[in-house]
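Schema walk-through. Below, the input block comes first and the output block second. Nothing else is stored per chain. Lengths vary across the set, and this one has 197 residues.
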Amino acid sequence: MNNYENAEGVRIREMFTPKLEDGEVIQWCGTSAEKLTMRERGMSAKHLILPVFLVSVCLILAVLILVNMGNLGIILTILSAAGVFALFYGSVILLHHVLFGTQSLYVVTNKRLYMLNKKGKIEVALELTALSSIYATPGRNNTGTVSMRNSSVGKYSNMVYVNLMGIEYPTKVCDIITEAVDNAIIMEKKKSQANRY
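--- output ---
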C-alpha cells in the first residue's frame, strides 16, 4: 500500500490486482470525491453560458412565432417548446454531471494510468510514456486535481488533457505519477537500445 492511499485506495488495489499484466506493479490507487464542485472539475460559470443562451433564444423565438403567426405559429411554437424542453433537460443533466458527476477510480502502475468506473470497469488505459506536463492543483479539504498532457495515438488520442479530479494529497500523487512516468520512459529507452543490438 502507498502512504497516500486511503481505505478506498486499498479496496481498488485489491480489486484491480488480478487485472494486471505480467510485470505490471501498482504504484498508487485512488478515487475522486463523490461530489465535486465545478472548480474541482476544472469548470466555471462560463461553461454554462451556452446552454442558458440556447434556452433563452428558443424561448424568445417561440414567443415571436406565436405572436406573429396563426395556426402555423402554434405548431411551430409547440415544436419550439419541445426543443426548449429538450435543451433545458439536457442542460440540467449536464449541470448535474458537472456538479455531482459519477465517481472515478484511478490506478497508476509502472506501465499505465487506468481510469475505471465505480464498478471497476476500465474506461481508459493510457501508457505512461504518453503522459507529460504533469502538475497538481490543490483544492479544499486536502483534495485537488492532478492534470497531465496525453500524446497517445489511436483510441485515446482525443484526450489531449487528462485530469484526476477530487483526489486526496494531489501534490504527493503528482510526484508519484511523475516518478512512474520518468521510470517508464527510462525503461522504454533501455528496451529500445537493447533491441538495436
